Amino acid sequence: YAAGIPPFLRGPYSTMYAAGAIALAVACAHAGILTRVIFMEEGIYALTGNHRTCENTQEMSIHELINMVAGSENLHFFAFMPSFQKRAIQKDKSLNAVFDIGYPGLGKIFFYPPGNVQAEHQRMFIF
């Protein structure tokens, strides 16, 4: 197994990496860092379907995790819609905190920091 991870836990259908990235994004946002998470290409599968966890576990599904941290002042989620269109799938409708963007929105995120940010660099999580 690559890095000790069995094939069924790796992408594109796995949510293990997505959960880790979201946890890191939440930690950055909690530390006061404006953080934007962009789901695109194979990463969009984390935003589709009906994700469930085992009944006797305390872990949350990706959808529950996103909805729980939604509304954080420093954390924003985006879904790159051309990736969905290319695969003929849709984002789960319960994920209201994940904003749909296209090419213009992606370019704006990459090249124009929000007005309240004065840093000369930014952090983005793209998966």
Rg computed from alpha carbons, rounded to a whole number of angstroms: 15 Å
Q: Uncertain segments of ≥5 residues (pLDDT<50)?
A: none
| Average of the residue pLDDT scores | 78
Please state roughly what percent of the residues sit in beta strands, choosing from under 5%, 5-15%, 15-25%, 25-35%, 35-45% or over 45%.
5-15%
Secondary structural class? alpha/beta
Based on DSSP secondary structure assignment, what is the total number of beta strands? Answer: 4
Distance between the termini: 21 Å
The rough form would be described as globular
Main pleated sheet: 4 strands, parallel
Helix content estimate: 25-40%
Number of helices: 4
Order of SSEs, N→C? HEHEHEHE
Tell me the strand order in the biggest sheet. 3-2-1-4
Which properties best describe this structure?
single chain; 127 residues; alpha/beta; four-stranded parallel beta sheet; 4 helices; 4 strands
What secondary-structure arrangement, pairings included, does this model have?
Layout: H1 16-30, E1 35-39, H2 62-69, E2 75-80, H3 81-87, E3 98-101, H4 103-111, E4 124-126
Parallel strand pairs: 1-2, 1-4, 2-3
Helix pairs in contact: 1-2
